[in-house]
Amino acid sequence: MYNKIAELSQIKGINSRHIKLLQENGISTAEMLAMSSQIVVSEIKGLGEKTVKTLIWNARNALNMTEFTPVSEMDENTEFFTTGSSELDRILGGGMQTGKVTEVYGPFKSGKTNLAHTLAVTVQLSKKKGGLGGSVAYIDTENTFSRSKIIRIAKRFKIDPKEALSKVFHARIFSSDHQDQMILKAETLCKNRNVRLVIVDSLMALLRAEYVGIGMLAKRQCVLNNMIHALSRIAEMYNAAILVTNQVAVQIKGLFSADDAIGGNIVAHGCHFRIMFKTKGFSSNSSLKRRAIIVDAPDLPPEECEFYITSAGVADSEEVDLPQAKSLEFDIETVYEESEDDDSFDEEDEDEESESSNIKKLTDIKGIGKGTLESLKEQGIHSVEDLLDADPKELSSKISGVSNSMIEEWQKQAE
Ligand SMILES: Nc1ncnc2c1ncn2[C@@H]1O[C@H](COP(=O)(O)OP(=O)(O)OP(=O)(O)O)[C@@H](O)[C@H]1O
Ligand SMILES: [Mg+2]
């Protein structure tokens, strides 16, 4: 279904006021409406219950969602990409899967954020090399995203670090409704920017802080339910992979076991794959060895495996091949942080210089692909000269997924 996204305007009986109201509430395509529940859409002020029912039914009819399909005619379009550890790939049945929501939970330091960073790069690899050739939307609620880690992982997988960074769309999140908003925004990125992986690291951190006490539980679960449904819908609609990370409950008088992920049934049932990461059994302060356990999966045996955290992401062994790094000491983080913008990647810098002198059209600029070109044209930017004249702030506010600093970087190249 993901390759034939239909516009809202194609739905029978819809008018421009309906479209505006739906879009304002994050429903931007016919598929999104067709997969929505009448109860939820009826909450939108200005849309009557009857109208909502008709529009949703018409959308479903238009998309052939109101017929049963013989299974022999169903498309099998699941794709896999590597986690960076062949053992983890093995227990996952071939790697991280598209079309599904995967939850990874575990105690602090267990490697969740490391996996998120690794996947943010491996999804970019070509299909031949174990990736999907896609970009990633990274929803960061804990401020633990690290550019330098992405650079190191890119070097490990022999991807140009600058290109790798340009394909990671990052959003720092400050509240649970902001998180909700950006999950919906990620849908637009799937549509326009070839995003094939959406990461929420971590799913519960803000909800946990905002909805405190038993009295808030029902409300919190309702917000959570909406988020998980939106993620699940994105997974299916765009055949994208979704990774959510989650924490574990603190043990309170035997009520919860230390292994329980938080979020209750909503998360447990909403996620298709649940994987537990463990530090236990290893001396977690000195060892970077971790254990992964398949807790729940529709068609996988309950296996477990070991993997390692390295300075360049999740791997099978303590050491990974990293250009310019002989050992994987912790201080590598600082070394690369400092050298990232100077001469640490001489070859690439040279490449870029020679390229930048050859910039004639917009697509000669690194970071501007076909999708972005279309978005730029819509804003009246047809040539390199137009781009140089544009105000980065104003332009970035009009194009989703393009930041102020990206435009400034393009202008630098164009100059
Ligand atoms: N550059 C590095 N090289 C090797 N190991 C590292 C490096 N940076 C971090 N680590 C290790 O990774 C672990 C932290 O992993 P990560 O941040 O993925 O955990 P997490 O599960 O996301 O934890 P939290 O619940 O706190 O978010 C720590 O044990 C740390 O020692
Ligand atoms: Mg983390």
Explained architecture:
This protein has 415 residues and is of the alpha/beta class. Helix content is 40%, strand content 14%. It has helices spanning 16-24, 30-34, 38-41, 49-62, 86-91, 112-122, 147-156, 161-166, 176-192, 205-210, 217-237, 264-270, 332-339, 346-356, 370-378, 384-389, 392-398, 404-414, and strands spanning 80-81, 96-97, 101-105, 135-140, 168-172, 195-201, 241-246, 273-278, 289-296, 304-310, 313-315. Helix 6 packs across helix 7, helix 9 (176-192) runs parallel beside helix 11 and helix 17 (392-398) crosses helix 18. The longest helix has 21 residues, at 217-237. The radius of gyration is 22 Å and the shape is globular. The structure holds adenosine-5'-triphosphate and magnesium ion.
Sequence-ordered SSE layout with sheet pairings:
Elements: H1 16-24, H2 30-34, H3 38-41, H4 49-62, E1 80-81, H5 86-91, E2 96-97, E3 101-105, H6 112-122, E4 135-140, H7 147-156, H8 161-166, E5 168-172, H9 176-192, E6 195-201, H10 205-210, H11 217-237, E7 241-246, H12 264-270, E8 273-278, E9 289-296, E10 304-310, E11 313-315, H13 332-339, H14 346-356, H15 370-378, H16 384-389, H17 392-398, H18 404-414
Helix pairs in contact: 6-7, 9-11, 11-12, 17-18
The structure holds adenosine-5'-triphosphate and magnesium ion.
